[in-house]
Amino acid sequence: MTGTVIDGTIRLNQEIVIPILKEKKKVKGLESWKQTVEQVSVGERAAILVQQLSADSISRTMIGSSGALTEMKSCIASTKPITFYRGTISSGMKVHISTGFDTVMAECQFLRPDEEQYEQLTSLEVPCVYHQGRGCRFLFHGHLGDSLNDRKIRRFVRRQRSGQVERVESAKSIVCNSLFKKETNISMFESLPVCLSTGETGRVVCAFGKAGKARIEMTTPLSESTLKMIAGGESVQVTIYLKKYIGRKKIEGYLPGSKN
């Protein structure tokens, strides 16, 4: 095999990994510019002799020491759009991702902007070998970050629902309407936090009747000003903030401003 060292050093008798073949080989000989050498470093080109490797089994690929190269199925990547591309780049689109000597189809989910950069979740149709931190470019360019497994990926969309306080049962218990539809299974939302337009917080306790109303337990007793607003017929809004996980039935609640 002939190639150029792009990171680190390769030495005589070192064990190398050929990911595309899923094989490990020991370096039996190194030659650089027709001279036998003991090692080669970054930027140097060399011929590598290993045993029992067919010349037809690989073409262009990457090799490395154990652990240097990782096979990934999904990853987080930071990307920048290429200004000359005039098309639309959006979540859910499939593009060709090129990294190293691999070009594979991937589905992109753009997560959030970071100044002029964007975090992107890439799901590859076929696993490929990557060198963490190296660039990739097509409709956008950037750097591959951490490889992810299916258990680590938690994609969700944020939703919110709003209703009105209908009555006060006690200083720490209220009933609200319009927060849920009549056919909603309110038990799925029990114990999730809610926020009043007055700034006070509480949690969903249970359904109240069968018309989509819910009983809310307040974290602290309602203030005198809030009680006067409700008693005077003023509108006090109740909002529940949700995270709905993609591909799962799981729903979580959170309060704005918290670390969620």
UniProtKB/TrEMBL annotation:
InterPro entries in UniProt: eEFSec_C (IPR049394), eEFSec_III (IPR049393), Transl_B-barrel_sf (IPR009000)
Domain Selenocysteine-specific elongation factor 3rd span(s) in chain numbering: 76-122
Domain called Selenocysteine-specific elongation factor C-terminal RIFT: residue spans: 152-232
Pfam families: eEFSec_4th, euk_SelB_III
Designated name of the protein: Elongation factor Tu domain 2
Organism, scientific name: Dictyocaulus viviparus (Bovine lungworm)
Lineage: Eukaryota, Metazoa, Ecdysozoa, Nematoda, Chromadorea
